[in-house]
TrEMBL record:
This is NAD(P)(+)--arginine ADP-ribosyltransferase. Residues 65-83 have a biased composition (Low complexity). The lineage of its organism: Eukaryota, Metazoa, Spiralia, Gnathifera, Rotifera. One of its GO terms (molecular function) is NAD+-protein-arginine ADP-ribosyltransferase activity. The keyword Glycosyltransferase applies. Transmembrane segments: none annotated. It comes from Rotaria socialis. Belongs to the Arg-specific ADP-ribosyltransferase family. Residues 1-49, 63-88 are annotated as: Disordered.
Length: 957
């Protein structure tokens, strides 16, 4: 049981000289911490028999339950918090599932030679279509890759030498749209009927495949990012019905920064050089790039944008995929285009209302959202091209008719020039295609969805009206986030925004670009840079690197700021977060207290930074089992945040999650769920769908449902969490192991032991590459593996895993921590099965002593221990004592668990066993019938458990 803290990125709050800890300077303590971290890392990679992991910024939840033997189940409750300057928890993207790319091109050929010129040139061409191009020599690597891409369109190039063996293995992959067979030997290949829908043909050379993929990907290039109000967010209140989703908010902030940036004369050359690299073998495009470099002026932006050339394609790709490197290179052109439209808009604003059209194909899920949300708002997050000529627009719509993934639509947009919140203009006179009668809108134009209706032909009409309406609550949050990311250079602001969006790699790109431009900069800038990089590496699970950057920041602060400066607190908060992440709770607590002492002397009592440190102290106390103290700190945090933040700020979700984790650890599951739901309600409206904080909430909800006996809902929530983490984190990040462990725990409770063991072994595999392997969270995995082996009657392996879990916990936790009790319980149960009765009782009594000291009097874990002790006495033929303990368990469960909870059935069953041994058959039968009633109403019904109960009833008769 327990909770976990978070960490900070506080680049704008430098800190200074260390106080004394345990007779040595903080500096010495920091060096000790770094050495300790390196030692822990070494131990996790060199000793496979002692696999240990961290549940990063998370809590641990353990309970014990059994029918005829006792063991614990251990899952992990995530606890997220924030400290000074925290920018929402933010992930780095894995290479193979970068959420930027709509299209992934995969090339499988066992004979690929990386250095071959033809191969290198082919990759260059394919990367003009998408940067997500991957090659594989082996089947299993490619299959694994396909299994781990989400919400993408995948095109597959396959060598003729492996077609017959490979295609049956991948043809059913849902994200695989088209297959192109490279048949350079021109041999005859028989295509199975099941393949024909996806196989686009046999091609003699790679150039033919490039042309085919270029044509097949045109519909993807036409996709435009839209923000649409989901139906479950529409409220009866008219203002709330105007709400837009979070992507609109973040893209607006991004655009604001880009439009304010100052660009020097070199930027056009930089963009030109970049584009030349993408079009090396295309003479026509290279000529256009040269022309642009020599002739472009700010007032010619519309002309260049409307030309069918590299510029339009590259910019729309960058905006659609949020590729920050390309967006930065094109920032000057985005500004030029926006400003030219603004100038033209001022001249045209007095014109009459007009009807414009846009034809295109849109994804099925996007179309479904629009159709279900008539009356809501929609925003287009790119420059939007429309036409007053309906026939031209219809041609674009009809181009999507043959694509099963797309719905051909014709947007009919009613435009009142006085109602727009962004500039737009009729650009016919300066367009390179004047016959198209184009009206061009700048980014983030907002429309009201008026109607959606089917045309007699093959397309749908979507009726929109231009509006300046917005969601007041969203705008309030946007203003607050604007203040949080503001200050510093525009590159700094972009980096901070990327952190808010949960885009770590892009944030790192911004900060390092700024660093290269300033060439180290002032001491203050150096502090900020080291803080930022430390935070990014911390979130990536690279704790050694994180600590290195934090220490650099501290050294600079000590050299330049006075002692006891208020900016000292953030760096200690950050170092404390690393301590927590490696399981060193005592040192984490020490650093957090140091930060608090500084802030109490220098900040007002309701300062937001102070609330963050309270929050982190609460997290550590929760992790070491001090739940009442943790709740006090969290309550202080909540009070300050309610005064200083908007109700829908992500940090409000964070504190609700933390409070929920305390209630979960105390066994008050209804209260826990209520707080988790508050958190997720905020997060779903204000965070991107792949933000790691959403995974935290789903994980917490899953753990609570499992504790309440609703395994199906638990599994659903845990799999949502795993999907987000797999998308958004590095493959060796500890939080991925956390999800594997939680799913494994649920699978054990459902009796799926083989599946459970697979997930648990996956958790240990993650640990092998994890920076913070020596953490108490890995005890959960070993406990669960022990449960599996116990269920399989492999007592020695079960005992070994339970013992490993105990050793890990003793290393990191106080001797009276409830998790130590769980380990004692598990060992007591397995020693009972091994017929070592005295040892079994000793361990369970140790567990009971700890639980009575550290848990609430009605906590379900106490019932588990009473059950375990009762069953040990039952096996020793002391039925009087056995019945006393099991009845204590039942009384407690009836107070603390919902009616029909599986743990109550477990206790009824145990009491029935005891009465049966005492030859009190009527009472035994009564108990078994209660068990049967609960099992028959359980979802899903467990046939094995029912069989045992029917057997018990039959044997009683």
């Amino acid at each position: 049981m327990g909770c976990g803290p978070s960490e900070t990125v506080a680049a704008t709050h430098p800190t200074v000289s260390p106080p004394i800890i345990n007779g040595q300077s903080k500096q010495a303590s920091d060096e000790s911490l770094k050495n300790d971290l390196n030692q822990r890392r070494t131990s996790t990679t060199s000793h496979t028999s002692k696999r240990i992991r961290i549940n990063s910024a998370a809590s641990i939840h353990s309970t014990t339950k059994r029918v005829t033997s006792a063991s614990s189940k251990t899952t992990t409750t995530d606890l997220k918090s924030s400290t000074v300057g925290k920018q929402s928890r933010t992930p780095s993207l894995t290479l193979y599932d970068d959420a930027n790319y709509d299209l992934v091109i995969i090339w499988v050929d066992p004979h690929i030679i990386d250095s071959e010129k033809t191969y290198v040139n082919s990759l260059t061409k394919f990367r003009r279509i998408t940067d997500a191009v991957f090659t594989f020599n082996e089947f299993d690597q490619c299959i694994h890759f396909l299994d781990h891409i989400y919400e993408k369109t995948a095109f597959l190039i396959v060598s003729d030498s492996i077609v017959e063996q490979f295609l049956p293995l991948v043809i059913g992959k849902p994200h695989l749209d088209f297959i192109y067979i490279l048949n350079q030997t021109k041999r005859k290949i028989e295509l199975v009927n099941a393949w024909k829908k996806k196989v686009k043909g046999l091609f003699d050379d790679i150039e033919e495949i490039f042309k085919a993929i270029t044509a097949d990907s045109n519909h993807i290039d036409s996709w435009i990012p839209m923000s649409i109000l989901p139906k479950n967010d529409i409220k009866k209140n008219e203002n709330e019905a105007n709400e837009l989703n979070s992507s609109f908010m973040y893209m607006c902030l991004l655009t604001e920064i880009l439009l304010k940036m100052q660009y020097d004369y070199k930027v056009r050359n930089t963009l030109s050089e970049f584009c030349r690299g993408r079009y090396l073998d295309n003479e026509e495009e290279l000529n256009l790039i040269n022309e642009f470099e020599q002739n472009h002026k700010s007032q010619s932006a519309v002309y260049w944008y409307t030309r069918d050339c590299f510029l339009y394609k590259t910019m729309n790709f960058a905006l659609r995929t949020q590729d920050m490197e390309i967006i930065m290179k094109m920032g000057f052109f985005i500004r030029d285009l926006h400003e030219q439209l603004a100038t033209m808009y001022k001249k045209q604003v007095d014109q009459q209302k007009v009807l414009v059209f846009r034809g295109q194909g849109i994804l099925l899920n996007e179309f479904d959202k629009i159709r279900k949300n008539i009356g809501g708002l929609i925003s287009f997050n790119v420059f939007l091209s429309t036409s007053t000529n309906i026939e031209i627009s219809l041609n674009f719509a009809k181009g999507a008719e043959n694509d099963p993934k797309l719905v051909p639509v014709l947007f009919r947009m009613h435009i009142d020039p006085t109602k727009s919140s962004v500039p737009f203009a009729d650009v016919t006179k300066c367009s390179s295609f004047s016959y198209e009668k184009e009206t061009l809108f700048s980014m983030h134009t907002i429309f009201r969805i008026v109607d959606v209706r089917r045309n007699e032909g093959q397309y749908w009409n979507i009726i929109l009206s231009l509006t300046s309406d917005t969601d007041p609550e969203l705008m309030k949050l946007t203003d607050h986030l604007r203040q949080e990311i503001g200050g510093g250079s525009h590159l700094q602001q972009l980096g901070n925004l990327m952190l808010k969006m949960g885009k770590f790699d892009r944030a790192k790109y911004m900060f390092t670009t700024e660093r290269n431009i300033t060439n180290e900069g002032t001491w203050f800038e150096q502090i900020r840079f080291n803080h930022q990089l430390g935070y990014i590496f911390r979130e990536n699970g690279e704790f050694v690197k994180a600590l290195s950057y934090y220490e650099k920041a501290l050294d600079i602060q000590k050299a330049n700021l006075p002692k006891n400066h208020s900016s000292l607190a953030p760096i200690y908060n950050n170092i404390a977060s690393v301590c927590y992440s490696i399981g060193d709770f005592s040192r984490a607590l020490s650093f957090y207290k140091t930060a608090l002492d500084i802030e109490l002397k220098s900040l007002p009592s309701d300062h937001r930074n102070l609330s963050n440190t309270y929050n982190n102290l609460g997290s550590v106390h929760c992790s070491i089992g001090d739940y009442s103290i943790a709740l006090q700190f969290f309550t202080k945090t909540l009070g300050i945040r309610q005064k200083t933040l908007p109700d829908n700020h992500p940090d409000m979700a964070s504190i609700y999650n933390n409070i929920g984790s305390v209630y979960n650890s105390l066994g008050e599951y209804t209260k826990a769920l209520a707080h988790y739901q508050k958190a997720i309600d905020i997060q779903e409206k204000t965070l991107l769908s792949t933000h790691i904080d959403l995974a935290t909430s789903y994980s917490n909800i899953g753990i609570t449902y499992n504790a309440m006996g609703d395994h199906e809902k638990a599994l659903e929530s845990h799999k949502k969490a795993l999907e987000i983490r797999t998308k958004s984190l590095l493959s060796h990040h500890p939080d991925i192991a956390l999800s594997y462990n939680n799913i494994g725990s649920v699978e054990i409770d459902m009796g799926h032991y083989t599946t459970a063991l697979w997930y648990l072994e996956k958790a240990l595999e993650v640990r092998d590459n994890c920076d913070a392997g020596y953490h108490v969270g890995f005890a959960n995995v070993y406990d669960n593996i022990g449960r599996v082996y116990q269920s399989m009657d492999d007592k020695l392996k079960a005992q070994s895993n339970f013992q490993t879990a105990l050793e890990i916990r003793k290393h990191s936790l106080d001797e009276n921590h409830p998790d130590i009790a769980n380990s004692y319980n598990n060992l007591g149960a397995i020693y009972n099965l091994m017929e070592e009765k005295q040892k079994a009782i000793e361990y369970c009594e140790k567990a009971l002593v700890i639980q009575k000291q550290s848990l609430s009097e009605n906590h379900p874990s106490l019932a588990n221990t009473y059950n375990n002790i009762g069953l040990i006495y039952h096996s020793m033929k002391d039925n009087t004592k056995a019945l006393t303990f099991c009845q204590q368990a039942l009384a407690l469960q009836l107070k603390s668990l919902p009616e029909g909870h599986p743990s109550i059935a477990t206790t009824y069953n145990n009491i029935g066993l005891i009465h049966n041994s005492m030859k009190d058959y009527p009472t035994a039968l009564s108990m078994y019938e209660k068990v049967l009633s609960i099992q028959q109403n359980a979802m899903p019904v467990k046939e094995q458990s029912l069989g045992i109960t029917y057997y018990n009833i039959g044997s009683t008769y």
